[in-house]
From TrEMBL:
Coiled coil: none
Active-site residues, as the UniProt record annotates them: 28, 196, 211
Pfam families assigned: Josephin (PF02099)
Keywords: Hydrolase, Protease, Ubl conjugation pathway
Biological process (GO), any one: proteolysis
Gene3D superfamilies, per the entry: 3.90.70.40
Protein's UniProt keywords contain Zinc: no
Organism from which the protein derives: Plasmodium cynomolgi (strain B)
Molecular-function GO terms, alphabetical: cysteine-type deubiquitinase activity
InterPro entries the UniProt entry points to: JOSD1/2 (IPR040053), Josephin (IPR006155)
Domain Josephin residue range list: 15-225
Name of the protein in its database record: ubiquitinyl hydrolase 1
Catalyzed reaction equations: Thiol-dependent hydrolysis of ester, thioester, amide, peptide and isopeptide bonds formed by the C-terminal Gly of ubiquitin (a 76-residue protein attached to proteins as an intracellular targeting signal)
EC number per UniProt: 3.4.19.12
Amino acid sequence: MCHYETHAIETERGLINVYFEKQSKLYCLLHTANNILQAHVYSPDDFKDAESMLENAAVGIGTLSGDQGDAAGRGHTDQNSINCYTPDGDGNPSSTQLADVTAKEALNCNNVLTYIKRGFHYFGNFNINILYFFMNKHNIELHWVDNKEIFRKINNSKDSGCVTLFDNNQLNDKKLIAFVVNIVRVNLFDFYHHRHFYAIRKISGMWFQLDSSLSKPVLLPTNED
């Protein structure tokens, strides 16, 4: 269940209505999407379904490749001969059979990991590709900004005490409507990463921090403030 409402924020340009979703479970990526769209467009089930399709597609590709390999390599060979053990000249399993076993083990491992990930996805923490998928439906294009570039600008501005990550020309670009920020909050043995996502959205020419972990939208200061 998502908690959302529209806030009337007082600005130098008058009252601006800002749609805002508050945090539920680990659905921050879902809240980020709806906060960008400024409406309750998608539900947790929409994101779960998309996540399942993404996982199934990844597993399905591996399965299809393995099946095609058998068909192409062995033609109409009987299934029993495919499964039988045939040593090579040294009495060891052939390299083809070892490759098949390795591929099947990897596929089984992927299936197990997929079910584990789905358990995590029940509570949220969705794949970033899901955001790309849904934003594309609204003709919104996402551009990745490397953290290294951000850190470089911060390091170069240490002495000045003021960091300019994006200049006015970039911020005033009519095509630019939002920034998506993600922060790793939990790193579990490099297997599970919990990332918190939120949006910085331009609405009526003003920039707002729409962080679902907060209680309400935050109006960001301008250069004139």
